[in-house]
Structure formats: structure tokens, C-alpha cells
Amino acid sequence: MQFIDQAEIEVQAGDGGDGIVAFRREKYVPAGGPAGGNGGNGGSVILQAVEHLQTLLDFRYAHRFKAENGERGGPKNMTGGAGSDRLIEVPCGTVVYDVETDEILGDLTTPGQTLYVAKGGKGGLGNKHFLSNRNRAPEHALPGLPGETRLIRLELKLLAEVGIIGLPNAGKSTLISALSAARPKIADYPFTTLVPNLGVVRKPTGDGTVFADIPGLIEGAHLGTGLGHDFLRHIERTRVLLHLIDATSEDPIGAYQTIQAELQAYGRGLADRPQILALNKIDAVTPGMQDLEAIATELEELSQTTVFKISAVARIGLDSLLQTVWQCLEEAKELEESEVDEMVLEPEKLGAGG
Questions:
Q1: Taking the CA of residue 297 as centre, how many other CA atoms within 13 Å lie in the half-sphere pointing to its CB?
Q2: Do both 135 and 10 map to the same domain?
Q3: Fewer CB within 10 A of the terminal residue: the chain, N end or C end?
Q4: Is there a contact between 269 and 300 (Cβ–Cβ < 8 Å)?
């Protein structure tokens, strides 16, 4: 299955049906008045988040979606039928933009969540609507209004709580395969991972947490170099970043600084996200290759945090690493909840001050 995380589509709501001019012609109603019905409303275009989709692949081949038009009004004050809405399924985590204004129209994160992206046109009024004391036999009706037409951009941002980042070949795919049932492609050359991989890692409580193996970033990624923006967006939703550094590389310190610089340059709060640092592949470090302890000490001084020494292949140090991940996630959730509580209380504070 191809992983497609961006698409542009045109959505067109249905036009409203026209109102009509009609009069009553029953046998025993000699003074029959106006009886033209209103037109039906046009259908709307609605996006709905669903769990069974993981990519935007369907929109590579279908670019235009239209809802049904409303029906014309009928005699005897009959309103025309409303046009059916067009429901479009998208993966959870889809952000919707208006292409012309670049405005965010909505963010569909939970299954079943819906977003109206094009409203149907209102049905026109029949001549019955214009009956008055001054005009007992109106002979005009209104046409239906056109439905909205809009060009929208869909961007999929993965819904993962933990994002695994690092330079190419740092061992991210190996780690996610060691921690979960995910089986990404793994090889000893850079850019093995060309699409994000998701894996569910079980907590001691039995709950599952989604980890995302984000394809390797390189210098200049925030400008679109390499995989660039295509995958930096996927770590925007994560609560915790697990930063892997290849202990066997020529410059582990430089590798750390490169990733930090890219996160800072990309913005959107990524550089401030809680990070857990891990030196990976320690089983492959020979005595003459690197001074592992010196590298770990320097990284701890730069990051002001503990550096874990692990081997995803040999499964060394993974238990203690996961314990810290769970702890960081709990702290991040508590912080988010406290911020939400403050936002809820803020109007009350304002009211009390008045």
C-alpha cells in the first residue's frame, strides 16, 4: 500500500432547486390562489474521519466530488426534494485547508468526526411565499442558490504519541520492530524508510501506545531538503520525541546538533517537545572505535537530560528506556490537562473581575 499524505480535491455542493409559479385549479375552489412550492436545498459535501483508512491514496485518482442538486418545487405547495449530501471518508489525523486562503477549515482527529467543507445551495421560493393582501396572485418565484465550490488541501498528520527521530540509519526502524509488532523494511544504507511506520507498544497496564518511526531527517530538512516537510509534519502531534543517535557514527555529537537545529528551524513547537535521548548500536562499538562514556557525558551536558545507551538489535537497555517513555507521556498528559483546565476557568476569572 502506498503512503500518500497530501492531496488536493475540488468539492462542489449541490445547487438549490428552483421555486415554481403555480395556482390551485380544483373544481370547488373558484378563487384558487398561488400554490407554487419551494425548491429543495442542495446537498452538502462532508468529510468524515474513519479508522480503516491510513493514507490519502484514494484521492490520487479522484479529484472532484459533487453533492446532489435540490429538486424543483411542485404544484399544490409541494417542496422539492433535498439533494443528498456527499460523504467523503478520510483518515483520522487529516487537516483540511482552503487552497486559496490557506486557512485551516478543520482538523479531523477522532473516528466519526465530521466537517462540512461545502454547503448546499438554498432552494428557491415558490410564488406561494409572495402571497400578500396587496398581491393575491403573485406570478414570480425565485431560482435556487448555487452550492459552494471550493478547492481544498488534505494533509495527513500521523496520530502517534511517541515519535522516533534521528538521522538516516540511526536504527529507528529496528527499534520500532523490537518494541512492537511492526515490521518495517530494514537495511544498512540511509533512507531505508521512505514512509512513516506505526507500531503499537504495550504498556505494563496493557494499554497500547502508538509509536511512529519517522523517516530520517537531514540537514536542511526544514527547507524541504531530502524528505523534508513531507515527514516533519508527522511529529507535530506527538507528545514525546525519542531521539536516536548512532553510537557508531563518526560524529554522534554533530548528529544530535543537526537534528536539534532542524527542529528549531521548522518551528511549530517541535524543539520544545519533551525529548528522550538514546545512543543506539552500543553492541557494535569496539574499544578502539568510540569512547562511549565520553560521548554520553557530552550529550548529557548539551541536552541537560539523561542519555540512554541501548541496542535495538540486541535488545539492550530497552526496558529502562520504555519506563522513561511512559513517565514522560504521563507528565505530558498531565500538563495538557492542566492547560485545558486553565482555559476553561479563564472566562470565570474575567467575569469575576467585572
A1: 5
A2: yes
A3: C
A4: no
Q: Which residue has the cell 402571497?
A: 131
Say how far apart CA 212 and CA 197 lie, in whole Å: 6
Q: 41 CB contacts (<8 Å, ≥6 apart)?
A: 14, 16, 17, 70, 82, 83, 120, 121, 122, 123
Q: Which residue has the cell 469575576?
A: 352
Handedness of CA 55, 58, 61, 65 (dihedral sign): negative
Residue 352 within a domain? no
Q: Are residues 129 and 172 in the same domain?
A: no
Cell of 202: 504495550
Gyration radius of the chain's alpha carbons:
29
Q: Which of these, 150, 55, 157, lies nearest to 108 by C-alpha position?
A: 157
Sheet holding 162-165, edge to edge: 197-202, 208-213, 162-165, 240-246, 275-280, 307-309
Q: Domain limits at 265? A: 162-338
Alpha carbons 16 and 143: distance in angstroms, whole number: 8
Give 166: exposed, middle or buried? Use CB within 10 Å, 0-12, 13-18, 19+. buried
Which parts of the chain sit beneath pLDDT 50? 1-2, 186-187, 189-194, 220-229, 347-354
* Contact status, residue 228 vs residue 262, Cβ threshold 8 Å: no
Can you give the pLDDT at residue 192?
43
Whether residues 318 and 278 fall in one domain: yes
The pairing of strands 162-165 and 240-246 is: parallel
Same domain, 185 and 150: no
Q: Which residues contact 90 (CB under 8 A, 6 or more apart)?
A: 47, 48, 49, 50, 53, 56, 108, 154
| Residues whose CB is less than 8 angstroms from the CB of residue 11 and which lie 6 or more positions away in sequence, other chains included | 45, 64, 65, 66, 86, 88, 117, 118, 148, 149, 150, 152
